[in-house]
Design brief:
Largest sheet: 6 strands, mixed
Shape: globular
Bound molecules: ligand AR6
Low-confidence stretches: none
Distance between the termini: 41 Å
Number of domains: 1
Order of helices and strands: EEHHEEHEHEH
CATH superfamily: Leucine Aminopeptidase, subunit E, domain 1
CATH topology: Leucine Aminopeptidase, subunit E, domain 1
CATH class: Alpha Beta
Structural class: alpha/beta
Helix content: 25-40%
């Protein structure tokens, strides 16, 4: 029989920070990647710059193996964090915003799957950017609502703190509103 936890898992604490996610001291930093896993702009560019060549090398290995066709939207996968302060980077691919098609479930999946992968690694603190709200065009208020709702509904075994790292004042305000 597997051992039963003494107390049921709780929702992680949710913390808001304004700043650059690559400055964060967290066990896991989540990357708003694209399906190629081979880098890009925004958060992705910053993570590869600060993480260094080890991150790209690990991503190339994923592409050469199980992820030959890339990472699907809404999924997540971990690599080394290279020179970043984190132990791991969890790469996830947000949906491109569409005004005509509701892709909210895919955006929620990014947060849920990233948290699951982080939790499987035993991480206690996880830093997230506002996935899809940059190049992928998702309206910040709605992106913040989906992020906060999804994380609050999660019951990870190890993760105790989820930190949303917001680049500017507007993003921070949107997440603050979503927390209320
Ligand atoms: N730290 C925290 N937040 C940041 C940082 C940073 N260093 N840089 C940007 N943001 P984006 P997406 C904010 O475009 O919309 C890439 O090219 C930014 O202001 O990084 O999911 C990938 O390769 C915005 O609010 O990610 C993909 O092709 C949020 O982070 C594509 O962009 C997300 O912006 C993914 O687009």
């Amino acid at each position: 029989m597997s051992p039963q936890p003494v107390t049921p898992p709780a929702a992680p604490a949710v913390v808001l920070v304004q700043g650059d996610i690559t400055d964060q001291d967290a066990d896991v930093i989540v990357n708003a990647a694209n399906s190629s896993l081979l880098g890009g702009g925004g958060v992705d560019g910053a993570i590869h710059r600060r993480g260094g060549p080890a991150v790209l090398e690990a991503c190339r290995k994923l592409r050469a193996g199980h992820y030959g066709r890339g990472l699907a939207t809404g999924q997540a996968v971990a690599t080394t964090a290279g020179n970043l302060a984190a132990r791991l980077v969890v790469h996830t691919v947000g949906p491109v915003y569409s005004p005509t098609e509701d892709r909210s479930a895919l955006l929620a999946s990014c947060y849920r799957e990233s948290l699951r992968v982080a939790d499987e690694s035993g991480a206690r603190t996880v830093a997230f950017p506002a996935i899809s709200t940059g190049v992928y065009g998702w309206p910040m208020d709605d992106g913040a609502r989906i992020a906060v709702e999804t994380v609050r509904a999660a019951r990870p075994a190890f993760v105790q703190e989820v930190r949303f790292v917001l680049f500017d004042v507007e993003a921070y305000a949107a997440f603050e509103a979503a927390m209320r």
